[in-house]
Amino acid sequence: MSGIKIGIIGGSGVYKIEGIEVTKEHKVTTPYGSPSSEIIEANLNGNSFYFIPRHGKTHSFTPSEVNYQANIFALKELGVEYIISVSAVGSLKEEFPPASFVIPDQFIDWTKGKRERTFFGNGIVGHVSTANPVDLDLHKMLVETCKEAGVKHGASGSYICIEGPQFSSRAESNIYRGFGASVIGMTNVPEAYLAKEAGIAYATIAMVTDYDCWKEEHCTLEEIMKVMAANNASAHAVLKLLIPKLTKNPFKVKKENTFAVMSKPEKLSQEQTHILEVLLR
Prior knowledge:
This protein is α/β, with parallel strands linked by helices and 281 residues long. It has helices at residues 68-77, 136-149, 170-179, 188-197, 221-248, 270-280; strands at 6-10, 20-26, 39-44, 47-53, 82-91, 101-102, 106-110, 153-154, 158-162, 183-185, 201-211.
């Protein structure tokens, strides 16, 4: 254990910014298989954090192929207590235009069962509430930091997660708008729910690249690439403020997994005992 408590999940651009030094790579094995890549240890002005590219270093995993269990378990085993997710999304509301951020406080799971979504099962029985899937203290800190960085953002909203890799049909997009969802993406479920099971504070920066197909608005590839570049720059600005702020002002995480496990300890195997020791520590 190195004492590093912050983990960032996102794309490769997050650690290729001025002032961030990659100091080490950790190859972590888990009972759930291999994470998307080695866990990168990085330093920002004396503040260390871990980073993992969700889709792998060469973007080789579709959203359904990402090993979310291994990613979250590996970060927890390294001692991470706070996870900031960075994700590209489509907007389902007029008030969240491309190049703006949304900091969701709710998720809607519209995946189709292809993903392993819990650490429980195979002899370990447990139930964790996801009524508040995002840690509200971390959410508040993210919203304040977006404001401080001058990034246009929505301070709340629901993120609907679809299976992918296909985008929605227009009929589906309008259904999701009818749900009241703010943004649509393919990666934050079960990532957020697994973090809850692991007792890790989780919040996400949802970076709007375009309006989903409900809005008949043509975008060229050049325009989308410009938006993505602007979003990356804004994400870097937010993270460069957030990482030292969270390092210097950590808050006590309210772990909802403490009393979640119903299985009797004496009935568990050595591997099952190890899994629970990591998740519940």
